[in-house]
Design a protein that fits this description.
Elements (H helix, E strand, L loop, with lengths): L21 H26 L12 H20 L21 E5 L20 E6 L5 H4 L17 E3 L7 E3 L13 E6 L17 H8 L5 E6 L10 H19 L5 E7 L1 H16 L7 E5 L31 H11 L11 H11 L9 H6 L21 H6 L28 E7 L5 H13 L4 E6 L16 H15 L4
Parallel strand pairs: 5-6, 5-7, 7-8, 8-9, 9-10
Antiparallel strand pairs: 1-2, 2-6, 3-4
Helix pairs in contact: 1-2, 5-6
């Protein structure tokens, strides 16, 4: 729902429209004026020639949808309204689950708490919604529990079959060698800018795992109820995602089954998928996933901070996408996500330096200009290099943090492994990236694809023509059916490569 009556979150406490009664008044005013504009938009674009529309191929329904959502999004950033969120500590009522089953996953095991996950956030158990409601036969037909594995807490009975397949295989002579299809297991990270949506099947983003099961792309999908930024700061999201990944590996180890794991994420969920994959690669505790499915992934959150170089290169398609960039609220949300409190005036240079270190970490903004330059990649966000002319005008501490040669420190890895690889995306698995060419993330996502290709990743890009951000979560009837059908076809065909 639009107005969730949530109390004012601490990071919004200083915003006038985030408090009652102004919050309710602003939301009602914004909603009523937006509804009133619908017939105006319909009449205007019915009269204007096609070339005057945001995109010539768009129908009136598409234009109204984008304009409506864009205006409503302003409510989020100005009044701190969130929608389709859940308390991650509560078990859902069984009656609310028609397509999924729910389970709790234990916190990440202590020996695995190394690298970027070893931060200030507390390790917690994580809720998971699992598609389909009944375990599919591909998952259960070879299941066999060995009593030797009962009570196993950390020593995972798995190995990696090869560097190419990344299959999870039990380390046991009792492993079932019966010929058959290896289950494809998905782990889904929902989008929502780390402040909206949930893993519950009723959330808009859950159309993605639901569709993947319906179209038989995957056999089973775990949707992660990770903690949003208003609940816990980074690296809580990576901790929660890593806990679920560990759980899936353990489950198939106990069952004596092979499986292939596909990580799926839309928007900010795609950002989390990239962060989790990097942690898996850097720390080496578990096998890498077999593939990544990234749907309009957020690759450069650093653009939200005014002091960063990305902020000097405005994101394109402001008039064709529903995403908005209101400077102060966006910066505020990112600061909160990174665990920094709102300050009217930064009192300490070190706090600003800490912010720059965080925001230019490969785990947070893997395709920010600073990170890309640090690893020798081209910056698609600003091909002409205009942003570099602004460096000298920044305060010295910020200028130092924006220097590509300034290596950002992250926690040391365990067991003598280096957190640094020779390539930014070296050893990343097979990847499909889906992008709408009318969305605001076009440049950063293309930077991701180009960087992955240069680093030797088997990456495929599907560009949906004239499509906005994250089209697979748009309600049926509001977008061009052919565009959505073609996008799903690309996903299905890519999924066949793992069979």
């Amino acid at each position: 729902m639009l107005y969730d009556k949530s109390p004012t979150y601490p990071h919004y406490d200083h915003l006038p429209y985030a408090k009652e009664p102004w919050k309710a008044l602003y939301v009602v005013w914004r909603l009523l004026t937006t509804i009133a504009l619908v017939p105006v938009w319909a009449l205007t674009y019915s009269v204007l020639p096609l070339h005057r529309r945001p995109r010539e191929s768009w129908s009136l329904r598409q234009i109204i949808h984008v304009n409506f959502i864009r205006r409503i999004f302003k409510v989020t950033e100005v009044a701190g309204v969130t929608w389709q969120t859940r308390d991650p500590t509560r078990t859902p009522h069984p009656r609310s689950l028609r397509e999924t089953r729910f389970t709790w996953v234990d916190p990440l095991p202590i020996p695995m708490r190394t690298g970027v996950v070893d931060g200030d956030a507390e390790f917690k158990r994580v809720g998971c919604y699992i598609w389909p409601k009944e375990e599919p036969i591909e998952v259960t037909k070879k299941a066999k529990v060995d009593s030797d594995f009962e009570g196993l807490c950390y020593t995972l009975p798995i190995s990696i079959s090869s560097s190419n397949s990344n299959e999870v295989i039990p380390n046991s002579s009792q492993a079932n060698d019966e010929d058959g299809e290896v289950p494809l297991v998905g782990i889904f990270m929902h989008g929502g800018g780390y402040c909206h949506m949930s893993a519950h099947e009723s959330a808009s983003t859950s159309q993605i795992p639901s569709g993947l099961i319906e179209k038989r792309v995957l056999h089973e999908i775990y949707s992660v109820e990770y903690r949003l930024l208003q609940i816990a700061p980074f690296p809580a999201v990576v901790q929660d995602a890593a806990a679920v990944y560990t759980h899936v590996v353990e489950q198939y180890g106990f069952r004596q089954n092979k499986c292939k794991i596909i990580l799926i994420g839309d928007s900010s969920g795609g950002n989390l998928v990239l962060s989790l994959t990097r942690w898996l690669r850097d720390e080496g505790h578990l096998p890498l996933p077999s593939g990544l499915l990234l749907l309009s992934p957020s690759c450069d959150p650093s653009h939200a901070i005014p002091e960063t170089l990305s902020s000097f290169s405005p994101r394109p398609n402001a008039h064709t996408d529903y995403l908005v960039d209101t400077p102060e609220p966006r910066a505020l949300m990112l600061r909160t996500f990174l665990g920094l409190k709102h300050e009217k005036e930064l009192a300490f240079v070190e706090e600003e330096r800490r912010l720059m270190n965080f925001v230019h970490s490969e785990y947070v903004s893997p395709c920010s200009p600073i990170v890309l330059k640090r690893w020798g990649h081209n910056v698609m966000q600003d091909i002409e290099g205009i942003h570099t002319s602004h460096i000298q005008n920044l305060p010295s501490a910020i200028r130092l943090a924006n220097d590509p040669n300034n290596v950002i420190s992250i926690p040391e890895a365990s067991s003598g492994k280096s957190p640094r690889f020779t390539k930014l995306f070296g050893d990343f698995p097979k990847t499909l990236v889906v992008l709408g060419d009318a969305e605001r993330l076009v440049r950063e996502v293309k930077s991701l694809v180009v960087a992955m290709e240069k680093d030797g990743v088997d990456v495929q890009l599907h560009v949906a023509p004239d499509a906005v951000h994250d089209i697979l979560i748009i309600s049926k009837g509001w977008w061009d059916k052919k565009t959505i059908r073609d996008t799903w076809t690309a996903v299905v065909e890519w999924g066949k490569k793992f069979r």
